[in-house]
Write a structure and sequence with these properties.
Layout (H helix, E strand, L loop, with lengths): L1 H5 L15 E4 L10 H14 L6 E4 L3 H7 L8 H10 L8 H17 L16 H19 L4 H6 L5 E4 L6 E4 L15 H16 L11 H8 L9 H4 L2 H14 L4 E4 L8 E3 L4 E3 L16 E5 L2 E6 L2 E4 L9
Parallel strand pairs: 1-2, 4-5, 5-7
Antiparallel strand pairs: 3-4, 6-7, 8-9, 9-10
C-alpha cells in the first residue's frame, strides 16, 4: 500500500486513481509476510477496478506463487496459517476468500485512518500457546486446499501471465519474474504471447478440479513453470558476469522488440541496471520481511522517461541517453 499510494496508483482506501496507467507486478506477492492472501485479494480488486478508469493491472506469476500452488508452504507465515486456522473454523476452502476480504476491509479502514497496523497481529497468551501448533496445522491444511486443484486461489492464479510486454516507444518494456532465456523465447515459443499460452495451460490444468482436468500440458509447458533455468527461477540474468550473460539478454530484448527487460526475483540493494541498460533488476526486498519498515519502490516509465519512485520522491533513472534508445 505504501508503494501504491506513493506512486499515486491508489488512494489510502486502495481505490484506483491512476487513470489509464498500466500497473505491472512482477510476482512473489506471497510468502514474504503475514498477509499473503490479503495482498492477492488487493490485486484482484485492482484488476477489476482499474479498467473502469481506463487502466490495467498485470500481475505476473512468481516462483513463490508456484510454490503455493505446488503445496509447498514452508515460506508461509505461521501467523497467517494460525489466522486461517482460527478465522475459517469450517475448514472449507470456499469460506476463505470472504474471510480474507473482511480482513482486508478492516486493514484498509485502519490504514486510511493512520492506525498502527500492529493492532492486526494476533498475540497469543501463555494459556493459548499449547493449542497454537494445532491451529497452525489446521491453517496449513486449509492453505493446501485453497491453492490445490479446484481451490479458489489456484483458480485466481490460473490467469497469471509468465511475461508481458507493455508500453510504447521508449517505454516499451518486457516484464518477467526472473528472466527469459533465449532458449524459451524466441527459440522454443517464438513470442511472449505463445509463452503465456503454454504456461497458462499448465496453470489451468493445476487449478481445475480433480474430476474435470483438461488435457495434461506438455513437458515443455511444465518446464516453463518448474525449470530451474526457466522464467520463474533463473538467477543468471541477475547474478552472472555481464560478459557472459548480456549477449543472451540483448538477443531476447531485440527479438521481443522492446527497449529493455525488467525483472524481480533476485534482491538488490537498489534498483540496478545491467547490460548497457537492456536489463533492470527491480527487486529491492520491498517487504519488511527483508527490510524493517519496508522499502516501497516503484519503477515508472512515462513519455519515454524512466524514474524510480520512493517515499523520498521521484528521481530519473537510467544510464542510457534518449538518443541511444
Amino acid at each position: 500500500m505504501r508503494a501504491l499510494t506513493t506512486a499515486k496508483i491508489v488512494d489510502e482506501h486502495a481505490h484506483w486513481i491512476a487513470g489509464d496507467t498500466t500497473l505491472v507486478q512482477t510476482g512473489d506477492l506471497v510468502d514474504r509476510g503475514n498477509a499473503s492472501l490479503a495482498v492477492l485479494e488487493l490485486f484482484a480488486r485492482l484488476e477489476e477496478e482499474a479498467p473502469l478508469h481506463g487502466g490495467r493491472v498485470v500481475p505476473l506469476l512468481g516462483n513463490h506463487e508456484w510454490l503455493c500452488l505446488s503445496s509447498d508452504y514452508r515460506y508461509a507465515s505461521k501467523h497467517e496459517l494460525a489466522w486461517l486456522g482460527e478465522n475459517v473454523p469450517s475448514g472449507k476452502a470456499s469460506d476463505v476468500r470472504p474471510a480474507v476480504s473482511r480482513w482486508l476491509d478492516n486493514f484498509l479502514r485502519l490504514y486510511a485512518g493512520g492506525a498502527n497496523l500492529d493492532v492486526l497481529d494476533r498475540v497469543y497468551t501463555e494459556e493459548e500457546r499449547p493449542k497454537l501448533n494445532n491451529i497452525i496445522r489446521q491453517g496449513a491444511d486449509i492453505w493446501m486446499d485453497i491453492f490445490g486443484s479446484g481451490g479458489p486461489y489456484a483458480q485466481l492464479l490460473s490467469s497469471r501471465r509468465i511475461a508481458t510486454v507493455e508500453g510504447k516507444g521508449k517505454c516499451r518494456t518486457l516484464f518477467v519474474h526472473a528472466g527469459l532465456p533465449e532458449s524459451v523465447v524466441p527459440k522454443l515459443y517464438g513470442t511472449v504471447d505463445a509463452l503465456n499460452e503454454a504456461g497458462g495451460a499448465m496453470l489451468k490444468y493445476h487449478a481445475a478440479p480433480r474430476g474435470a482436468k483438461p488435457d495434461a500440458p506438455s513437458k515443455d509447458a511444465k518446464r516453463i513453470i518448474t525449470g530451474n533455468d526457466g522464467p520463474l527461477w533463473i538467477r543468471s540474468w541477475a547474478m552472472d558476469r555481464a560478459a557472459r550473460v548480456c549477449p543472451a539478454i540483448e538477443t531476447v530484448v531485440e527479438e521481443s522488440q522492446v527497449r529493455r527487460a525488467v525483472v524481480g526475483h533476485t534482491v538488490q540493494e537498489e534498483v540496478t541496471e545491467k547490460c548497457h541498460g537492456h536489463l533492470t533488476l527491480l527487486d529491492v526486498g520491498m517487504s519488511d520481511a527483508y527490510n524493517p519498515g519496508g522499502k516501497p519502490t516503484v519503477w515508472e516509465c512515462e513519455d519515454g522517461q524512466v524514474r524510480i519512485v520512493t517515499p523520498s520522491g521521484r528521481k530519473n533513472f537510467g544510464s542510457r541517453h534518449d538518443d541511444e534508445l
